[in-house]
Triose phosphate/phosphate translocator (Babesia divergens), 441 residues
Amino acid sequence: MEAFIRQSIDGTATPTNVGKRTVNQVNQKYNNKRLNIKTTVSYPIFAVRGDKHDTKVLEKGGIQKSTALHGVPSEKVAIEPRKTVGSVLNSNESFAIPSLKSAFKSISLLSLWYAGTVMYNVENKKALNMCPLPKTIAALQMLIGIPFFLTRWLVGIKPVPTIYTSNAGVQEENPKAGILESIKMKVRNGLCRLRNTINSHASLIKQSAMFSMLHLLSVTALGAGAISFVHIVKASEPLFVSAISLLTGSGSMSPVTFLTLLPILGGVSMASLKDLNFSPLALASTLASNVFASIRRIEAKKFFKQDLSKIGQNLDAANVSSLVTIFSSLILAPLSLLEISKWAPVYRSILYKYSGKGMLQLARHIVLSGFFYTLYNEVSFIALSQLAPVSHAVANTLKRIFLILTSSLLFKTKLTSAGLYGSATAISGAMLYSLSKHYYG
């Protein structure tokens, strides 16, 4: 590729071919090694654009120069092409292979996402049917993901995330101080470091608190009601995101986006009133989980809008998700102890209903549900980062439909015609909300 540069009256260089636009300042020498630019004698391969300057190009075999107004000459400059760039003639071939690879990658990603979501919900429901202890099961599912995150960091697949912590208020200890004074200083410095650590991790702690409650309430809802009913109600999450954003002043909404909330509200109401598997506990838990999910989403959005290089290192979406899951495990583990009085009766009930293999079967369901929970959360983060917003909105809608239909077939859940219409309306409204939010705000 060649670029013809002319020196104009005002001292700027003007590109005269359509192949490459290059701008050079006054008296700049064309010997920059980084750009691989050099002054050469060559033959034209592109037509020279005509404008107000008087440009003359010699025939092939001669030295090409151009003369601008007032006789200011400039030489022709050739920019050597990058060796990785292919010919224009085979552009169809060069773009065909990446598109096939991209399509295969997207299909594989969506398949893992859908399969992980379905398998988690199925294994989770089986575990809850055997052991109706949602706090215990939710905590175990979170804990199962921790070895995966730690292994990934130890092996080096992902860099270890780091959060910067200040030393504000920490005083240097005096070696000449007495024992009592030294103990007081250590306690004071320890409290200052604890305060600084909490302040530096404040956003992650908030996200973890919301995420732990979201997961606990979701597990409670799935134990109390049908999977299909719970996920129909979950489609109303945009209502809560919009309401909380408007109340806290952290977001705005266009009139078009507001109108998309109406089919969500109407569809969820229709499905809830006419559903044969209606459960007040499942409805209340799902709506409450939507509140925590909305707050967590808003907090995460605020976190990623910051300059993360000032907060820590290696804080990408996957690592932040891992940290939030670990912190959530620390919150849910103590909450599971609230069900400690029920452990023994449930254990005896499992042995009575399922004989000696009952505990092994329960353990398998809990481990698999925890594994698939970690898998589909990881894949959803990858999908969110690699798919376009519109594609992600459509894929998320199809995932919910696929999950509702699959769970209804596996657990033989009956859906009324009103329930089907309501779920279709709510899910369609959720997709329209995502699309409208992307295009109109």
Q: What stands out?
A: The chain has a mean pLDDT of 77. The radius of gyration is 31 Å.
